Amino acid sequence: MTGGRESTVRALVVDGPGAPPTVRPVRLPAPGAGQVRVRVRAAGVCHSDLSMADGTIAAPYPLVLGHEAAGVVVEVGPAVTRVAPGAHVVLNWAPPCRACWFCGRGEPWLCAAIGGPAARRGRTAGGDPLHVALGLGALAEEVVVEQAAVIPVPADLPFEAAALLGCAVLTGSGAVRRTAGVAAGESVLVIGLGGVGLAAVAAARAAGADPVLAVDRAAAKRELALAAGASAFLPADDTLSRAVRELTGGRGVDHALECVGRAATIRAAWRATRRGGQVIVVGMGAKDDLVGLSALEIFHSARTLRSSVYGSSDPDRDLPELAGAVLSGRLDLALLISAETSLDGAAAALDRLAAGEGARTVVRP
Questions:
Q1: Which candidate in 97, 157, 159, 277 could, as Cys together with 273 as Cys, close a disulfide (CB 3.0–4.6 Å)?
Q2: What are the backbone dihedrals phi and psi of residue 13, each rounded to the nearest 5 degrees, phi first?
Q3: pTM of this structure
């Protein structure tokens, strides 16, 4: 269907840093040239949503939260060639332009055209300008997005699994496979066991890493970590570095993946990594949370410190591959889903995330 009108849908909106998110009506524009309207069938509640709600990541408000989602195309604007109404799609919060210098170098996750934490789209019920998180605002009944932001997937792929592929799985598995390049027999440490961290644990185990050490401040994450393939669960305290070295011949791990986005945990990952190993920062943190490393230890340790943006993934290439792994049974995402709720329960899911409870909550708008 084409040529629609502005529509009113329910969405999870936050009015400012620390303000309580509430579900309310918002107005979405009709799809313009090259845009599509998607009815959201499942959306994951991600730590980045929490960071935008509490102000850790600066964003304009009022803001519709959500960026990890899957659904069905219900309307397309003029000049759309990528999908047609009825297509099942995963939303991509970082669609590359395929034309800039970074895209030309095969690094679409660093695309110069990728926007900031939010884009202006639609209006509040009162007519004020509205912003949507990471260009999507997917904790809503429907979204209007550029056609490059949708990736077609098989219709028999469950929506809840498809949603997680769009962020947690691409980010966590990509950090292991693409950024770190973990090889069989290498040791891996994962700090932070939300959806991204658990996906990284599973990917490290699938790559043949040994041992795979999982760390979180919440002891309740132990069973989730072991189910994902961790060799051991370690508490996030001052004994971490010593415990890691005891399990790695006194050296430290080959790869430490920090999936929290805090200076303290980045520093903990650094201390737990062997000389010549690498620390991969996967979590997105605050700009004023500074990491301190001395010039001497940088030289002496010979460690590499780098980030993994969106798992160094090309979603158009990697997501269909992951979808195939889910459908074949080679990738089981059930352990990443700790709860399901309606849109009205999304705010409570953010509270559970802030408390470190569970893995992913999937919202079904």
A1: 277
A2: -120, 140
A3: 0.93
